Amino acid sequence: MPTIDKYIMSCGCASNALRIVGDERIPACVIHDDAVVVKKVESPTDGLEGRQAKCTYNNKYGKCTSITESSWLLPFFKHRPDKEYDEYYCGCYGWD
């Protein structure tokens, strides 16, 4: 199985899907319907050194408080340089 490289999309998210156009597979963000690549990620913490990411899950029962080191490999990661924390989903409410 081929590995999927990570890319930073114009929406600020790490690529989390592939869009198939003809025979070509284009990195994309399925959340924001974005297929515009800003740059290829060279390492999991490329440009994120010293930053932390907070899980964005919130429901009527409460808010997740999970915080971890920022990484382009975190699920549904979004770099938020204008905020105190980057964002991701830790899986606290399941994956389905």
Quickly count the helices: 0
Structural class, from secondary structure content?
mainly beta
* Average residue pLDDT: 88
Distance between the termini: 23 Å
**Order of strands in the sheet with most strands:** 8-5-9
Order of helices and strands: EEEEEEEEE
Query: What percentage of residues falls in helices of 4 or more residues?
Result: under 10%
- Quote the beta fraction: 25-35%
Task: Give the total of domains.
Answer: 1
Q: What would you report as the Rg, rounded to the nearest angstrom?
A: 14 Å
Uncertain stretches: none
Please tell me what the overall shape is: globular
Tell me about the biggest sheet? 3 strands, mixed
Secondary structure tally: strands: 9
Architecture overview:
The protein is mostly beta strands. It has one domain (7-88). 0% of the residues lie in helices and 32% in strands. It contains no helices and 9 strands. The strands form 4 sheets. It has a 3-stranded mixed beta sheet, with no helix packed on it. A two-stranded antiparallel ribbon has the order 1-4. The mean pLDDT is 88.
